[in-house]
Amino acid sequence: MNPPPINQRLAANRFILDEAECHITVNQPLARASGTADRLIACCPAKVYSWAPDGSLAVEYAACLECGTCLAVADPGTLEWHYPRGGFGVHFREG
Amino acid sequence: MTGQPDFDVIVVGAGLAGAVAAHQLAQAGLNVALLERGSQAGSKNLSGGVLQCQGLKTVFPDFLDQAPVERVIDRQQLCFLNQSSHVTLDYADQRLRQAGSAVTVRRARLDPWLAERAEAAGAIVMTGIRVDALLRQDGQIAGVTAGADELRSRVVVLADGANSFLSRLAGLRRAPARHQQAVGVKATFKLPAETIEERCQIDPAGGLALTMVGDCTQGVAGGGFLYTNRDSLSVGLVLNLGELVRRGGDSSLLFERLLAHPLISRLLRDSQLLEYGCHLVNEGGLAMVGRTVFDGLVLVGDAAGLTINTGLTIRGMDLAVSSALAAAAGVTRAIAADDTSAAGLKECRDAFDRSAAGQDLRLFAQAPAFLANERLYGPYGELLADLMFGLHHLDLSPRRHLLAQARRSLRRSPLSLGRLLLDGLKGARAL
Q1: Which partner for A25 in A80, B49, B265, B323 could form a disulfide, CB atoms 3.0-4.6 Å apart?
Q2: How many CA atoms lie within 13 A of B215 on its CB side?
Q3: Integer distance in angstroms from the first to the last C-alpha of chain A?
Q4: Do residues A83 and B35 make contact, with C-beta atoms less than 8 angstroms apart?
Q5: Is the residue at A7 inside a domain?
Q6: Candidate from B44, B108, B252 with C-beta closest to A47
Q7: Domain, as residue range, for A33
Q8: For residue A77, what is the domain's CATH number?
């Protein structure tokens, strides 16, 4: 079996998207300067973080699996991350 | 005091710790609310999948028959995985099945069942509610806030998981160090039950827990696992965050690499991906537990940092249950005595420390330091495979005795005999 790539893996999940509120905020200059951006890109299992063409750190918050790894590896002050509002976000059916 | 509290106890988080605590407290006749941010209990929860369930059986004697458990684990494999080889220790025992002490679970199924039990015992279960902060009054935790709502209680049981933002926000606990946490990455794959039984060599009533160390993490401290559910397989990796960052590892790519390994790829053939998820795992053992009882508040389960990494498995769910039982007993006593200060709630911690789980936590206190040894995640597996190759590959050179072959493999390895003995001794002491 070929390992399913990340977009296929995420497509198998159920998400309840909160269109009104994004639960992740990046301090762009600080995240880049501190090396946090590269760390987030590598560590996040959902590949929420990636480099945008304009050189900023793009955040695909809709794909977040809410593990908290990003916050655990981010330097202080580079990332604001909290759980989505009640009832929103990933909805595990297997777990 | 702004009127009477709304509840005797508010429990935050409907995982194992929260649901069991709520069940016990409600059964003791207390007025209990169980709050969960997911739209259903379990919808935010994910575990590798093996639950040591003896504790839950004391709470629910019908647990094995009634709870949505998948399979009883009666076959354990420890596999040293290298890039193109693996050496596996395979242990199957009918006594394991009869004991029924380890079962695979899917949290999205188990947790709603536990929440229902708590509800049946009289707890009020409220889902889809994210608690934003703890309320304080006169220096004591006196409830929670969720959006514009304030809910007051005499005691809060905090079961908000490995991240426990609520205790951090209240300044009660600090964020753990990176090396004390890991990320678990897992996918579930659907396969017919008969196919699983055939491929994993288990009976319809049995189950396999396969643990992998070595190449599956490319040297990052951690390991891989494959567990059998009734008609699906759970496959995943646990990666220490400190080591993942230090080595610049990519968790998603490491996971794909594990799936591509022939050992795993063969087991997953023709399966259908059901779900992909991840979750933080506490790995600091006793060192990261710290204080768990405050004025008006008790921490339980992952929120209290309770896990034991034994090298073969990371126990968390059974510690969650033990801590919940201890907390419920302590809270019930404190409320009866009308003293919900930290001193009044002291029994919550003492009862846990006296429990088997609490004793195990102390017994394995040195395990995290031993398991940080990077030789475990590469050289040892290669040494084993090289030894096995030497024994099984009959080229035209004369054979050697086992000991001579072992010496030869050791010479070719970056490990030395002294290192081996020292690590062996440390491991035997720590694990």
Answers
A1: A80
A2: 22
A3: 22
A4: no
A5: no
A6: B252
A7: 22-86
A8: 3.30.70.20
Task: Compute the distance between CA of residue B353 and CA of residue B17 in angstroms, rounded to an integer.
Answer: 16
Coil, helix or strand at residue B285 = helix
Q: Judge whether A16 lies within some domain.
A: no
Q: Which residues pair with B183 in a beta bridge?
A: B239, B280
**How far is B287 from A58, CA to CA, in rounded Å?**
36
Model confidence at B373, pLDDT cuts 50, 70, 90, reads confident
Nearest-by-Cβ selection for B46 from A12, A84, A95 = A95
Q: B403 pLDDT exceeds 50?
A: yes
**Given pLDDT bands bounded at 50, 70 and 90, which one contains residue B1?**
very low
Q: What residues of A are in contact with residue B39 (Cβ under 8 Å)?
A: 16, 86-87, 91
The whole-angstrom separation of Cα A53 and Cα A46 is: 20
Has residue B2 got a pLDDT over 70?
Answer: no
Tell me what the pLDDT averaged over chain B comes to. Answer: 95
What value does the mean pLDDT take over residues B80-105? 94
Torsion angle of C-alpha atoms A13, A16, A20, A22, degrees rounded to 10: -40
pTM for the full predicted model: 0.96
Closest CA to B377 of B311, B291, B324: B311
Q: What DSSP element (H or E) covers B214? A: strand B206-214
Residues B380/B80, Cβ–Cβ less than 8 Å: yes
Inter-residue contact B183 to B251 (CB < 8 Å): yes
Residue A6 domain-assigned? Answer: no
pLDDT score, position B344: 98
The answer to whether B312 and B48 are in contact (CB under 8 A) is no
In contact, B180 and B297? CB cutoff 8 Å? no
Task: Name the strand (E) or helix (H) holding B133.
Answer: strand B133-137
Is B177 in contact with B282 (CB distance < 8 Å)? Answer: no
Pairing of strands B102-105, B50-52: antiparallel
Tell me if B47 and A90 make a contact (CB, 8 A cut-off): no
Decide if A78 is inside a domain: yes
DSSP string of B147-177, one letter each residue: TTEEEEEEEEEE--TTT-HHHHHTTSSPPPP
Facing A72 at nearest CB: one of B108, B271, B280: B280
What total of structural domains would you count in chain A?
A: 1
